[in-house]
Amino acid sequence: MSASNCRNFSGGVFLLVMTNSENKDIDFIKRLTNIVNNNLGDDSFGVTDLSNKIGISHSQIHRRLKGIKDQSISQFIKELRLMKAQELLKQTGLTVSEVAYQVGFSSPSYFNKCYHDFFGYPPGEYKNHIKIESAEIKDGPISKELVVVEKKFYKLNHLLWMASLVVLMILTAYLFTKKRTAVSAKYGNSVVILPLKNLNANSADQYLANGIMSDLQNRLSHVKGLVVKSNINSEKIKVESNTIPQIAKEFKVSYILEGSMMKQDDRIRIYIHLIDAKANVVWSDQYDHNLSSIFDFVSDASKQIVQNLQTPLQYESIQQLDKQYTYNEKAYLLYLEGRFYYRLRTKDGFIKSIELYNQALQVDSNYALAYAGLADSYLTGTWNGFYSVDDGIQKCKMYLNKAQSLDQYLAEAHTTYGGLATYFDSDYKEAEKHLKLALKLNPGYDRANKIYAEFCDVTGKNEEARKYINKAHFLNPTYPEILYLSYLFYCHNGDCKNALKESLRMFNLNKNERQYLESCFNIYLQQHDDSLAYVTYKKINHLKGDLYSSNNLDSVYTHSKIKGILQLIIKSINKEEKDSLSIGNELRLANYYTLLGDKEQAVEYLEKSFNKNPGPVHRVGNNVAFQSLHNEPKYKALMRKMNLNH
Questions:
Q1: What class is the 190-324 domain?
Q2: What keywords does the record list, in alphabetical order (predicted)?
């Protein structure tokens, strides 16, 4: 039988065996396709528009498409755009960019990527590849759909062909699985979440881009068997196709999640891609929503990612992926913006974050995460000296109690409670209870690992402190605060070699030369390497605008060595802050007086710092730099106030 006759016969059998349900499915696909084809040139046409035009809800379309084609709505729309693009490339002389715009891709580079993923080669190389038989494309995407359905149901005279197809499918699945296994073998099921590119000219929308990916990270971090790393707070690494393997290597992950966002009024379009370490796109989708549907996006996207990573889902993980802390779009967006400003870790940033959290609570007074955010801002702001201890800690406790009364399973609230109990209540039993609960609720929460590491450092559990600060860094490799704490813990333990390495890592991350030099200066002082300490201080002095001339410094060092330089630094600090010393400088002075052997002055500055803000002084007890003070009566009394007996 000829190919043509086979085709005609198969069509006849297909018509005979097709059920009413199958007829309805084909009719449904035709209707969807006609609507999409009529709107291909509209780059803003998406899921919501299709739902409105066909008169069926988004969820109903999604379920039917999943059952018929195992596709999401956005995948269906994108496939039709790509099929039309191939048709235009064949029949017209349009450039690739012109074709991209005609079929509704606002970004030619994204079009190139999607086209390559779908057809296996870039659109610019179309003419170099074998053309699809005209019989299969003459009627466009719908004709192809009929052929697929036809093949699906035709089983009579093509049994051998079907058997071959099954074998081919099994072989393809095997090779795909083998390829994916090879990719993930080195680093297991691990993914780094990169910043969502904000394609809007308005940089004010960056909070939304960061917040969406932070929400995805938080949900995915609850999934057992999946390691989720974050690079959301750093723009250091830019994502280009040719750098993806390097990014995977740097973060030690098997997969990368990245994307871009465009927002216009109350509509948002998000392109999101899951890419393996060899730059192969594992999963890609486009979400076109009203902002009111943003909750559905983060929940649906997180589940799609887990499914494509082939990670088994337990009941608790499914609950976390679906969990909504508020159903009010405005409250959610205000919370995301509040987190954005909190992460700036500046006085203005904390003030703005508190303002935004309060606005979120005005819209939804039962939003537990917003209360937890308020508690966090007041705790961290107080630690940094931006709020008085009495006011800041009282408000922190008030908002923590409110958050926990609404949701006792918030890892965020328990983590903040652990920090509060460690640094301001000196209640280490309570701190440990809350921090361990936070880690149980969400082992992949980098901040819980970070604060638990701090608790261990304060209480002298050095091995545990190192274990958990390394875990926090593993989860969030580009967060400067975590690297700083890692450096600090090495200093506390007298491990100057590793402290120097960590200070260099900080510099490579943030390129803050003054911070790097000051870190090195403190290490050289701890090592009693006076010459290196002096050379380093001269560089710091130059960066600060040459407070002292080089000749002046040389003269002081020649006559008094490093002690003379330390006395000079003490004078300059007192001169700069003659009215009121900052907490950080009070601790610096305590350290310098300890090095000078003036124990009385050293303890006096520790007491001043404690009376002003007890938080940072809790780190002194486990710091070898203050070991010579341990037998001083006033020092012992100070340690007792903090319930520390190192």
A1: alpha beta
A2: DNA-binding, Membrane, Transcription, Transcription regulation, Transmembrane, Transmembrane helix
